[in-house]
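Provenance

Sequences were taken from public entries as deposited. Structures were produced by running a predictor on each sequence independently, with no templates supplied. The record for Ankyrin repeat and SOCS box protein 14 isoform X2 from Lepidothrix coronata is shown for reference.
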Amino acid sequence: MFFHRQWIVLLYYLKQQEEEIQILALKYLVPVTDFAAIKESGISPVHSAAAGAHPQCLEFLLKSGFDANFMLDQRVRKGYDDHRKSALYFAVSNGDLCSTRLLLNAGALTNQDPINCLQIALRMGNYELMNLLLRHGANVNYFCRVNTTHFPSALQYALKDEVMLRMLLNYGYNVQRCFDCPGGNHCHSQYVTDGWTSTVIKDTMFCEVITLSWLKHLSGKVVRVMLDYVDHVKICWKLEAVLKEQKLWPDIHFILTNPRSLKHLCRLKIRECMGRLRLRCPVFMTFLPLPNCLKDYILYKEYDLYGQENFTGIYNLSCT
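Predicted structure for Ankyrin repeat and SOCS box protein 14 isoform X2:
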């Protein structure tokens, strides 16, 4: 029987070979592989193929019945600072779109690792990986374990990029939590220093982050985009003070002080009733008894900058 340690050596060797030799070797070795030994080893050949960026080997292994959701054993995870578990995490970390797609199509789950796979794609600024993960159920409302904010953590990586920001919001990011500030019209407590401290911060509000000296120039653009995804909201004193300095303030002020359109409110209610997982499911949307134009409106297709290959949104207007 073929054991996993030999698999690792084999895949390292096959990296130097042509694709035909890789597949030929696997055809002979997969039938005599001891799956019990693989389970005991705590790591699957699928991990090795994904880590080494071998999409052809990965595809063959998945078609041969290897589990796309085999998780690294605890003793193996300790060898990685991020304690990664899934083969999908390896593929996403490599920026390997082909391997990521193969794993997702084979049923790989997107939210199994301590550090969310979506967070890795966001750090890279990789639109294709982000879109692929979101379409397959990546949790857009995940929270980091360190420096936990009151609002879902993904937003921190999208503040400077409207394409990324719109993508997160279109897939059901919880915008309401960004305006959920207990400070209201009262003065906010100040940190020892302006912004992040050397200690772990718990439950940091959006207004505390976006009004930092190096981010407040983006506050108008970020808030203006967010207002497309919420009902009437109230902004706190601290956020309002910074927004008044931005060129988009007149537009923001008009939205905040006037009733939202019935069409907009209906869209929000329908999205709330559908839930995040149904919104991202193309099959579910296909069976909805609604005209295509209405489906597109519910999905915010007019703001799908990535799908439109349109990179001239609010952020690229001549306002600072």
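The two ends are 65 Å apart (CA to CA).
Residues 1-139 form a domain with the Serine Threonine Protein Phosphatase 5, Tetratricopeptide repeat fold (CATH 1.25.40.20).
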